[in-house]
Write a structure and sequence with these properties.
- With about 140 residues, the chain is an alpha+beta fold.
- The protein has a single domain, classed as Bit1 (3-Layer(aba) Sandwich), CATH 3.40.1490.
- Helix content is about 35%, strand content about 25%.
- Helix 2 packs across helix 4.
- The two termini are about 30 Å apart.
- The mean pLDDT is about 95.
- Pfam families: DUF2000.
- This is DUF2000 domain-containing protein.
C-alpha cells in the first residue's frame, strides 16, 4: 500500500548504542530491553494500535524508526557521559544484567555500581536529533 503524503522527518531521534563485542543474541536482547524502557517513559512516541484486513488487533509500535549503532567500550562510556550531561531520556543495560534472571535483580545490579563505573553494553536515548547525534559521536551504524 502506498501513501500520497511526503516522507515524515522527525524532530527527534530514537537510537540504541550497542557495544561491538556482544554476541548476536545479546545484541538482540539488549536492544529489546532498552527500547521497552523508552516506550514506557515516553508514551507520546508510541503510535496507534495496528489491525490487519481481517480486523485482528495488534499492539501499537514506535511512531518513528529506531536507529541502532555500535561502538567500543570507550565509545559507549563517552556516550554515557554525554547523554547524562544533556539530560536526555535514556536507558542502560550493563554486563551484570546478563547474569540475572529478573527485573528486581537487574535494577539491583545497576544500583550496586557508581554510574562512572557501569560496565555498559547498551544505551538507548531519545531526544532532539542534534543532541542524540552528539551523544553518539564516534559510534557507527550497526551493520
Amino acid at each position: 500500500m502506498t501513501s500520497d503524503s511526503a516522507p515524515v522527518r522527525f524532530d527527534t531521534k530514537i537510537a540504541v548504542l550497542l557495544r561491538d563485542d556482544l554476541h548476536t543474541w545479546q545484541r538482540l536482547n539488549v536492544t529489546a530491553f532498552l527500547v521497552s524502557g523508552l516506550g514506557t517513559a515516553l508514551p507520546e512516541i508510541i503510535g496507534e494500535p495496528y489491525a490487519d484486513a481481517d480486523g485482528t488487533p495488534y499492539l501499537p509500535l514506535f511512531r518513528q524508526p529506531v536507529l541502532v549503532f555500535e561502538g567500543s567500550k570507550e565509545v559507549l562510556r563517552a556516550a554515557h557521559i554525554r547523554v547524562l550531561s544533556r539530560d536526555l531520556t535514556r536507558a542502560v543495560f550493563t554486563s551484570d544484567m546478563f547474569r540475572t534472571g529478573n527485573d528486581t535483580d537487574n535494577r539491583a545490579a545497576v544500583r550496586a555500581v557508581p554510574g562512572a563505573d557501569l560496565d555498559l553494553v547498551g544505551l538507548a536515548v531519545h531526544g532532539p536529533r542534534n543532541a542524540v547525534d552528539k551523544v553518539l559521536k564516534g559510534a557507527r551504524m550497526h551493520p
